[in-house]
Amino acid sequence: MTRKKILWLCSWYPGKTEPFNGDFIQRHARAAALFNDIYVIHAIQTDSGKIGETTAEINQSPGLTEHIIYIKRNNSLLGRMMGHYRWLAMIRQAVRGHVQKNGVPDIVHVNIPMKAGLFALWMKKKYGVQFIVTEHWGIYNDVEVLNYAGRSKTFKHYTKQIFNKAAKFISVSNYLAEGVNRMVTTKEYEVVPNVVDTNLFFYKDKPTTVFRFIHVSNMVPLKNVEGILNAFRSLLEKNINAQLVMVGDTDPGIRDYAKKIGLLTESYGPASSVFFKGEVPYEQVAREMQEADCFILFSNIENSPCVIGEALCCGLPVIATRVGGVPELLGEENAILIEPRDTAALSSAMEKMTREQQGYDRKKIAEDAGSKFSYVVIGKKLDEIYSAVISKG
Fold first, then answer.
1. CA-CA distances (angstroms) from residue 30 to 21, 142, 220, 309?
2. Chain segment 346-362, per-residue pLDDT in tens
3. Contact 47, 72 (CB under 8 A)
4. I want to staple 223 with a disulfide (CB 3.0 to 4.6 A). Which of 39, 209, 217, 275 is the partner?
């Protein structure tokens, strides 16, 4: 098999100043790099203090080169204007340098149309190279506060142009793609779900201990973490022996709320039932899931959450809300779906899960998930798409 040269232009991508920004895109890149040579270009404007001046770094691993540009942000009005033009100039320079050194890529892959897709439009005109676009951003609905409808005319104009001129539209869920078709433009699409690192997230036998629920998120208001805590308190009031592990919190207000409603939040101990872990490395997230019995996601809105795929690959049955693209990932064999904001339904589902856990075949859940979300599976899907677009010219 001949490896194709694919240039990735990414609106979001992790770097040393933003290690979790678009990490799901990075995992897609790693999957694609199993079968093709992927070159990523991404520029980050930052005022984090970690960057003293505009600089760049190039990270290389088998099949994948990541060219990350860091631009020191000036938050004055003039500084923001100049920063935008500097951002444009730096990416264009990086693209030209890549083409000069490696030749015109076989295809360009845009991840999140605005703003990276602007350079795909420019490359199509300048070099005659086709591009495809993958959308991950869940703004194409009426629930998200900063949704597509509220964006500027310029944002909407170029977003529509990028979708229309793309040779292929990929979405991580039907829900998101249908939102694009409803709010932006009519475009055929193919779903390629988020990828899971099955070298980390896999089924592991768990000793029979206290039943343990786990929730993983950044715990912003849309995740409705307070609802999870209230449902768990109701569960404990029924004298059901269970634990709840919360991973990803950075705001002390969540822990304060847990204390306010009488749930202990300190380190593990015989009297504890709720454990906050904070923001932890990806590897630890996997270990925490492997030590749990059920994953909970009680969000008011979602797109296609990576954490559900990761939980399934660990063999965890899931309790989640019937929102966004979540129902596309789950069924009766691996989940209980409930309505958003229905705390009583969540508590009942948690109780049912503790009593009927033997009804879920955790090994099969993990095997089925691995066949959908693994690096190899997603990498092959992307390779097939690249080949089809290139063959059409």
1. 16, 33, 28, 17
2. 999 999 999 998 899 99
3. yes
4. 217
